[in-house]
Amino acid sequence: MKKLYAGVALVFFVLSFSSYAIGQQRTTPASADTSPHVVSADQGEKGATTESQGDGEAERAQGDKHYYGREATQSFEEAGKWYRKGAARGNAGAQSMLGFMYYYGQGVPQDYAEAVTWHRKAAEQGNAASQGMLGLSYYFGEGITQDYKRAAEWFHNAAKQDDVLSLGMLGILYEKGRGVPQDYGKAAEWYRKAIGKGDTTFQVFLDRVLEKIN
Predict the structure, then answer these.
(1) Which secondary-structure segment (H or E) carries 127?
(2) Which of 99, 138, 161, 198 could form a disulfide with 119 if both were Cys (CB 3.0 to 4.6 A apart)?
């Protein structure tokens, strides 16, 4: 039953990945421009190199166009090429997207260990989406040794940036006493925060823990 609850949380996350990821890439990296340079699809590598100014943001933006099929033909393979260029320049958003692509096997073979590598690079730069995913990897032991304490640490880091996945997962950790002391009150607080940020899927989790408190 415990695995079922955790699995449900992951399903919720997978279903909301597209909007979740693009929203985080636009706002969380410390070096990211909230109004990134826009490179038209026909400018190609030369245009991106000229406008990136060494931060990889133009390459990341070009990768987004191919990933989401906006102003360019949708192609995970092409998106991956641009994200790699941006990641090589240290762009946290590009690194994070590579992490997602390896996690889901989009344009590349599914490889949880490789996903962890890229998410860690982005997470260490403050990217909330990757901090949450790194926490999830530790929670499930995907591509890395399972460690609830480390999962809690990364979820807490991302929660400071109001990362919805991490807010909800902290509720699960406190409810189950995994990596943190079991505390139904704190679990309810974290579930409420996730719900307050618009993720009503955690309402069922809140209802369950409130029954335990009462």
Answers:
(1) none
(2) 99
